[in-house]
Amino acid sequence: MIGRVACVCFVLVAGATGAFAKDARCFTTDDGEYDCDFEATDDAGSFRISAEGKPTFEVFIEGGQAYAGAVFEPGGRSVSLPGTYFRSEEDPACWVSDATETQICAW
Question: Of 6, 12, 18, 95, which residue has the fewest beta carbons closer than 10 angstroms?
């Protein structure tokens, strides 16, 4: 899903970063744990996770703050997720919303 996820009005195109997806294990609060593709989208630590039959999530990091967005159906619009996200102290592979406590993780 290259270039389909936007977070807080930013659109990233993976082709512009030269990023490649890697096999990973992901977890989101709503979807549980599943196999996914992980793609770093910039040098700041931003990333995108995707899997067939699951929403595509992107965590976008800028200026020490992190935001997240999701595309819930193929070809659908990106939706900004509420709150800012912070790295979990319990598991640094997880990012947690300060508004909803929703987690997005990738190992």
Answer: 18
Phi first, then psi, for residue 24 (nearest 5°) are -150, 175
User: Is the Cα torsion angle 102, 87, 39, 82 positive or negative in sign?
Assistant: positive
Q: Which residues contact 89 (CB under 8 A, 6 or more apart)?
A: none
Buried b or exposed e, range 40-61, using 16+ CB within 10 angstroms: bbeeeebbbbbbeebbbbbbbb
3-state secondary structure of 17: helix
Q: What is the pTM of this model?
A: 0.79
Q: Residues in the chain, how many?
A: 107
Per-residue pLDDT tens over the stretch 53-79: 999 999 999 988 999 999 999 889 999
| Gap between the terminal Cα atoms of the chain | 19
Residue 54: alpha-carbon gap to chain centroid: 12
